[in-house]
């Protein structure tokens, strides 16, 4: 189980973004995530005017974050609780060139809103990545055996 968690967090950390939304909503948006394994959380830097942030203004809500990256070999549906955060120290820790591209006034931009996603569970598929996928498909054609495309499992946080 510890190896599964470590693999999950390592692969998730190598992926830049996924689709984030509320569990009871059909609208998801691409968002860069910032993993925080010690807290079993993901962080997002968003804008106050987004539908997601506006919805969270009424308090924490159930959310989903979906990740699909064949190159890194991780596909995951992560469930948890989304909430707004005013943690300036965390925002400074996460701040980077990508985030600064969205906010003209940098860290002082009044439109910045930090969002915390406390993870509860994840269903995942871990593969060896795109090169491994191609190898497994070619091997299955020669051997007649089904390809070994990796592991599937669930984690609870």
From TrEMBL:
Highest taxon, organism lineage: Bacteria
Naturally occurring in which organism (per UniProt): Paracoccus tegillarcae
Ranges where the General stress protein FMN-binding split barrel domain occurs: 3-148
One protein family per Pfam: Pyrid_ox_like
InterPro entries assigned to the protein according to its UniProt record, in alphabetical order: Split_barrel_FMN-bd, Stress-Dev_Protein, YdaG_split_barrel_FMN-bd
Protein name: General stress protein
Transmembrane residue ranges: none
């Amino acid at each position: 189980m510890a190896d599964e968690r470590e693999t999950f967090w390592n692969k998730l950390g190598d992926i830049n973004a996924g689709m984030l939304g509320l569990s009871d909503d059909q609208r998801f948006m691409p968002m860069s995530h910032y993993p925080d394994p010690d807290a079993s959380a993901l962080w997002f830097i968003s804008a106050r005017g987004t539908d997601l942030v506006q919805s969270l203004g009424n308090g924490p809500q159930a959310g989903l974050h979906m990740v699909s990256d064949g190159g890194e070999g991780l596909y995951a549906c992560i469930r948890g609780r989304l909430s707004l955060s005013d943690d300036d120290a965390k925002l400074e820790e996460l701040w980077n060139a990508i985030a600064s591209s969205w906010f003209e006034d940098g860290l002082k931009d009044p439109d910045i809103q930090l969002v915390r996603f406390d993870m509860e569970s994840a269903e995942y598929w871990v593969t060896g990545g795109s090169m491994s996928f191609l190898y497994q498909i070619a091997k299955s054609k020669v051997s007649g055996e089904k390809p070994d495309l990796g592991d599937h499992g669930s984690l609870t946080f």
